[in-house]
């Protein structure tokens, strides 16, 4: 083990636990343009088409789950919850903390890496789909996998 490997690994797991919840990335992106009320967050996220390549079900965010997730993210320090008592009725908005905006800027580099490696992403999505019993035809981009000539290593043991 190299010097610093343990710290790097710990950092990767910290990122996973901090940002790895199913709806956290969508909430972060939604709030990246500024504060919003919960109903605005819900309608914006509902307009996105996300995660279908990684799941056998259409992702639907329910208001009750959004409320719990916003509360959790606020407790973790990712979001700021502001009550506006100068209005009637009182409104509540959520916004990203500055450190989270910095994280999103840094994450653009990682997303660029994903964009540069579509074959790896397609292979991982296909494996995920097989493990979860999805029909291969339901995976977008499955035709591209045939073109990549990705071997099925399970057949090599026969």
Blueprint (SSEs and pairs):
Blueprint: H1 5-19, H2 24-31, H3 38-47, H4 63-76, E1 79-84, E2 91-96, H5 98-116, H6 118-131, H7 142-148
Antiparallel strand pairs: 1-2
Helix pairs in contact: 6-7
How would you characterize this protein structure?
- The protein is mainly alpha-helical and 158 residues long.
- It is built from seven helices and two strands.
- It has a two-stranded antiparallel ribbon with strand order 1-2.
- β1 and β2 form a beta hairpin.
- α6 packs across α7.
- The C terminus is likely disordered.
- Seen as an oligomer or otherwise, the chain set is single chain
Biggest sheet architecture: 2 strands, antiparallel
Principal-axis shape equals: globular
How much β-strand is present in the residues?
5-15%
Tell me the helix content: 55-70%
Question: What is the string of SSEs from the N terminus onward?
Answer: HHHHEEHHH
Low-confidence stretches: 136-158
Q: What is the CA–CA distance across the termini?
A: 36 Å
Q: Give the C-alpha Rg.
A: 20 Å
Mean pLDDT level: 83
Short key terms for the protein model shown above:
about 160 residues, mainly alpha, two-stranded antiparallel ribbon, 7 helices, about 10% strand
Write a brief structural summary.
The chain has 158 residues and is mainly α.
